[in-house]
Design brief:
The chain has 590 residues and is α/β, with parallel strands linked by helices. Helices cover 48% and strands 12% of the residues.
Length: 590
């Protein structure tokens, strides 16, 4: 990347200054290059002189002068000093050469190598399989899928996984709900459970079970029938989830069954690691994890049942220690298969990821309702002797869905859900993905269906796509006029004569913007914030439109037209690449 080239040149300048005594000997700290807020200040600004003031025992402006004295930038860039800052500006000569470099890179343009082939798993989606995929979960899957796209572009070996929560208490409630509707559809007066799932989709699942299996589950003991229908219902839900995901272009390498953690014996194999360290404690019939092995409570009463004063004392005493139930007491849940908590599954699952499958990093994409689970997962990771830096938890804020100026209330248990399919039907897959990516993950997102459905060139959802379509139109016209062969791409041409090098400010601004895609890929891959892609896509489209406004592409001298067509093609490639990283299409007509 250009930024790294410039950093290496600055580093060498400091070393050269030290070698001749212009700067004293010191260990060079890590430093960054930033884009100045004002374009007239250059393309990059180095503040390394301020970092060196203490160790060099010199005023920062003097350090900057001595570094600049040894800068060997060639035709890559020029520099200006602004007090302690070294401002760097890429030269038109260098920028001209980069248009061919972009076209030569083709579909690999924007790829970088910081991942160095490390194996990274992105586990996302993973909603309880008790109903259709909602638009609320849509933010999860779109964030995860986009991060996986970018991490792949950054040089990581990425594995995409959906964790199927098909064990535990909520599955019991789901199975009871399906059984009740199943029986009712067959004419049996079966009461619906108070804590069941009331959506119409439960009835649809029950009817599909009747079509496939008839009434045979009415002939089984009720508990057995509920469990069997619960498992079949989960399979039915997941089949529909896969279809919904496919509509927004999301696919997985694996759907991992929570139940397999217990059926394979993995949980029982991992548990002794914590037990041998004295971190598992029996209390009131339940098995607790205590991060430091301290007693759960001195009263013999579960913490949740303590009076307020006593609970406050216990909480204050153990405010920095994670303590949580791993296996519920049989007094609470008799069925042993339903007694493990989410934490029990997390213990085995993180071991499976980091040890059995050997991922270098495990990235979890969780909704804000799981914020309280973060310290527990990190605590058990440490307790298992695993490096907690290998576990990355992304917590995203939920969305507010608006229609006709009113908030659309959603709740799976109550049955008032808005599915991802519903939203895709209304606004399309591309718009859905764009909106769900358009804000920082730690910012609450307002998804206004009416606003998104407004298809106009200035609608931010479609703005980058309109820019791509405009370039395609230019290229078609060029082919019609004979400036470009319609059957072949614009191939890299020999260097243009100096009189025809890119010199117009809008030409140079566009090339600079095209080169930023590598930095954006790095930024998203390191910060794990995919909204930077939408910001870049908007800025790139705006910069291209300014170029198109200021610089005639067709009808100029042949050399100028050829050069600007190459630049337009490079912009088309970069826009398409950015849209692809977001999982969006790059239409040729709109």
């Amino acid at each position: 990347m250009i930024r790294e080239q410039l950093k290496r040149l600055i580093t060498q300048a400091i070393l050269d200054a030290q070698s001749v005594g212009d700067l004293p000997a010191f260990e060079l700290p890590a430093f960054t290059l930033d884009h100045p807020r004002q374009a007239q200040m250059g393309d990059y600004a180095a503040s390394v002189a301020m970092q060196l003031a203490r160790v060099a025992r010199m005023p920062p402006p003097q350090i900057a002068q001595r570094i600049a004295k040894h800068l060997a930038l060639g035709n890559l860039a020029t520099y200006e000093l602004a007090s302690a800052y070294i401002n760097l500006r890429l030269t038109p000569e260098y920028l001209t050469t980069q248009v061919d470099a972009i076209l030569n890179a083709g579909e690999g343009w924007g790829n970088i190598t910081i991942g160095a082939g490390q194996r990274v798993q992105v586990e996302h989606g993973s909603a309880n399989p008790t109903g259709p995929l909602t638009v609320a979960s849509g933010r999860n899957v779109v964030i995860g899928d986009t991060l996986a796209n970018v991490l792949t572009a950054a040089g990581y070996a990425v594995h995409r996984e959906w964790y199927v929560n098909n064990a535990g208490n909520q599955i019991r409630h789901f199975g009871a709900s399906v059984y009740a509707r199943y029986a009712q559809c067959l004419g049996v007066d079966e009461p619906f459970p108070e804590d069941g799932y009331r959506g119409e989709y439960i009835t649809d699942i029950a009817k599909r079970m009747i079509e496939r299996e008839g009434d045979r589950y009415l002939k089984l003991p009720k508990d057995e029938a509920r469990r069997a229908l619960g498992k079949l219902g989960i399979d039915d839900v997941m089949e529909n989830v896969r279809t919904s995901l496919g509509r927004v272009g999301i696919y997985y390498d694996n759907f991992f069954s929570e139940r397999s953690l217990y059926e394979s014996g993995l949980f029982e194999r991992v548990l002794p690691i914590l037990r041998d360290k004295g971190l598992l404690l029996e209390h009131d019939g339940a098995l607790w994890f205590s991060e430091d092995g301290s007693p759960i409570a001195d009263t013999g009463t579960p913490i949740a049942d303590l009076d307020h004063e006593t609970k406050s004392k216990v909480d204050n005493q153990k405010s920095k220690i994670v303590q949580a139930v791993v296996i519920r007491s049989p007094k609470v849940i008799p069925d042993p298969t339903e007694r493990p908590t989410y934490l029990a599954s997390d213990i085995a699952y993180v071991w499976n990821k980091l040890v059995e499958r050997g991922f270098n990093r495990a990235i979890y994409v969780w909704g804000e309702d799981h914020q309280g689970d973060v310290p527990r997962l990190m605590a058990v990771t440490r307790a298992l002797g695993l490096d907690p830096d290998r576990v990355v938890l992304i917590i995203y804020r939920f969305i507010t869905l608006m229609r006709n100026g009113q908030e659309v209330r959603m709740g799976k248990r109550a049955g008032n859900i808005v599915t991802l399919d519903d939203v895709v039907d209304e606004v399309g897959a591309d718009a859905t993905r764009y909106v769900l990516l358009s804000r920082s993950i730690d910012t609450k997102l307002v998804f206004d269906l009416d606003d998104v459905k407004r298809r106009a060139e200035d609608n931010p959802v479609f703005y980058p796509q309109y820019a791509h379509a405009r370039i395609c139109s230019i290229l078609r016209k060029a082919a019609e006029q004979g400036s470009l062969s319609p059957a072949s791409p614009i191939t890299p041409a020999p260097p243009l004569p100096s009189s025809h090098a890119y010199a117009h400010p809008s030409e140079l601004a566009l090339i600079r913007k095209l080169l930023e895609i590598e930095e954006v890929v790095e930024q998203v891959a390191t910060q794990l914030q995919p909204h930077h892609l939408t910001t870049y896509a908007q800025s790139l489209a705006t910069t291209f439109n300014a170029f198109y406004r200021d610089c005639h592409v067709l009808g100029e001298a042949p050399e100028v037209t050829a050069a600007r067509l190459k630049l337009a093609r490079a912009a088309k490639l970069t826009l398409a690449r950015t849209l692809a990283l977001m999982g969006m299409s790059a239409p040729e007509r709109m």
